[in-house]
Design brief:
Order of helices and strands: EHEEHEHHHEEE
Distance between the termini: 82 Å
Number of helices: 5
């Protein structure tokens, strides 16, 4: 199929599909980018009706719409907690290891991608801890895309035990 024109294309399924309030479905150009990313990352085959009348799988139309918008396809996610914790604990690592003109979020995405690469395909389920550059990356693989839940030192400091008095 040639390049998909998303102008006047309509979602024909799910929460953006036809409804009593919107019997023809939502224009693809009005669908939030997160929903489009979901459609691409899950290879969603729900129908999207193009202006020409052709029907294509949602993941193809969503990918074309993200490209039209100039959006980057989200393939991993960083929680706000993880970004906050990293910025407070590993600022020096960021300053020392970042590329020129690379911000904190992009730096963390790059390192998270490296950490994910260290996990064998068969082990990518549930919550996994990965050690990289002195940081333990806590990644949830049970979502549509991997999610960084938190970061912590490789060896978490234990609370000192109280001395027993005789």
């Amino acid at each position: 199929m040639s390049k998909i024109n998303t102008h006047k294309s309509r979602i024909m399924f799910g929460k953006h599909g036809p409804s009593p309030d919107n019997p023809r479905g939502t224009f693809l150009t009005r669908v939030p980018p997160g929903y489009l990313s979901w459609a691409v990352n899950t290879n969603c085959d729900g129908p999207v009706k193009l202006e020409s009348g052709d029907v294509v799988p949602a993941f193809l139309a969503a990918k074309a719409e993200l490209q039209r918008r100039g959006e980057r396809l989200q393939t991993l996610e960083l929680s706000a907690h993880a970004v906050d914790r990293f910025s407070l604990r590993y600022w020096r690592l960021f300053q020392d290891e970042r590329k020129k003109d690379e911000g904190l979020f992009s730096f963390m995405e790059r390192l998270l991608d490296q950490a994910i690469g260290l996990v064998q395909e068969d082990d990518r389920k549930g919550v996994v801890n990965v050690d990289l550059l002195g940081v333990r990356w806590i990644i949830n693989f049970d979502m549509v895309i991997p999610v960084l839940l938190s970061v912590k030192p490789r060896k978490e400091k234990k609370c000192p035990t109280e001395k027993k008095e005789n």
